Amino acid sequence: MNEVIEGLGLGMAAVGETRVASAQADLERALSHAWSHWEHTSDYPSIERAQRPESELWAGIRESNRRTNAAVVWKEGGGHFIVDIALSNRTPEEAARFVGDRPLGEWTSLASLFLGWFEIDEADEADEADVG
Question: Which of 12, 32, 61, 66 is 20–30 Å from 114 (CA)?
Fold first, then answer.
């Protein structure tokens, strides 16, 4: 679980987006979207077997800032989670060496799916505002 949480944050940092709203419902929908479309979920059977993987992942994000040995942590504040590469002066590429064996491109793929949900949701809200 920790590897996926760190990897997701690492992928976000690699694409230049380190902040998302911290509302649980929104995060769980985005996590569900990303998890159901990412091609590497079977490599994480403990998450895959969970009845609601998105809830497990959300809990991991929420508790991330308590980990002292993490390469990437999620810090909550001001209604957002902010991804922080905890290794001093490390780029996402350098930090990737400390987050399992998966290449950075695969974490970037997961992050793009995750962040893509927020873009889809914002577009839907804009369409609803135009109709209303």
Answer: 66
Exposure of 25 in the CB half-sphere (CA atoms within 13 A): 1
Query: What pTM value is reported for the model?
Result: 0.88
The structure tokens listed for 102 are 């998966």
* DSSP line for the chain: -HHHHHHHHHHHHHTT--EEE--HHHHHHHHHHHHHH-TTGGG-HHHHTSSSHHHHHHHHHHHGGG-SS-SEEEEEETTEEEEEE-STT--HHHHGGGS-S--HHHHHHHHHHHHHHHHHHHHHHHHHHHH-
CA separation (Å) from 26 to 37, 74, 76?
A: 17, 16, 15
Tokens 């994000």 -> residue: 61
80 φ, ψ to 5°? -135, 160
Low-confidence winner among 19-28, 58-67, 121-130 (lowest mean pLDDT) = 121-130
Q: Tell me the pLDDT band of 121, cut-offs 50, 70 and 90.
A: low
